[in-house]
Amino acid sequence: MQIFAHRGSSGTRPENTLPAFAEAVRIGVDGIELDVQLTKDQQLIVMHDEEVNRTTDGKGAIVNKTLAEIKKLNAGSWFSEDYSSTKVPTLKEVLDLLAMRNFRGILAIELKTDKEEYPGIEEKVSDLMTSQKWPFTYWYSSFNMSSLERMYALEPEAHIDFIMGKSEKKPPMAMERGFIKGIHPNKEWVWKHEAEIADFPLAVRPWTINTEDEMRQCLACGVTGIFTDFPELAASIKRNK
């Protein structure tokens, strides 16, 4: 079972920040997941929400802010005053950190295009990812199937996964497209389909698996991987299963 640090080690560090990603590398996770959005001046930044309100001291939509404006924000104090100097990272800054730390796992890049379309984001991400060789493997994922189709057209050899909630209509959508390698469903979908997971035709990696009981349940039913805010706990449970 692959362990993916969801937005980095986001249970112990402010999510989607360099400290969270550095901690995930230290733990030795199989993979790191992050979210990519596009600023007003067409810069790729790493943040989950379409607005900066929840994880910074600012307010407003990313699409209405320049990178310079976003870089002025405090992205750590909401989590702990220990991270009061933490900034919102660009995708390039995260890639450089992972390369510097010689991360050898998988970077799962989620394109946050399910609410904001961010025209051209796929090309920008692809151009950056193919601009050099990285020590790690990278994958693409999104809730937005159109976005994934665009990524497939740009990088037909890339590993592409479909993120979904609990809808029974979504897995067939993924299976109809030969380029989709796996699904990332809400954990409730997995609990409902536990008996089918081992023989499911696509890889299944649920989110967000944060308790010891959930982690053991995922190990027992044979999911391919999990996304967790607590990768160190998951790694310990996996080692001692």
Q: Can you walk through the features of this model?
A:
The chain is of the alpha/beta class. It has a single domain, classed as Phosphatidylinositol (PI) phosphodiesterase (TIM Barrel, Alpha-Beta Barrel). The protein contains ten helices and nine strands. Strands 1, 2, 3, 4, 5, 6, 7, 8 and 9 form a nine-stranded mixed beta sheet that branches. The longest helix has 10 residues, at 18-27. The model has no long low-confidence stretch (mean pLDDT 98).
Map the helices and strands.
Elements: E1 2-6, H1 18-27, E2 31-38, E3 44-46, H2 67-71, H3 91-100, E4 106-111, H4 121-129, E5 137-142, H5 145-154, E6 159-163, H6 170-175, E7 180-184, H7 187-192, H8 194-197, E8 203-204, H9 212-221, E9 225-228, H10 231-239
Parallel strand pairs: 1-2, 1-9, 2-4, 4-5, 5-6, 6-7, 7-8
Antiparallel strand pairs: 2-3
The total count of strands amounts to 9
Strand content: 15-25%
3D shape: globular
CATH architecture: Alpha-Beta Barrel
Unreliable stretches covering 5 or more consecutive residues: none
SSE ordering: EHEEHHEHEHEHEHHEHEH
What would the CATH topology be?
A: TIM Barrel
Mean pLDDT: 98
Structure in a nutshell:
Helices cover 33% and strands 18% of the residues. It contains ten helices and nine strands. The model has no long low-confidence stretch (mean pLDDT 98).
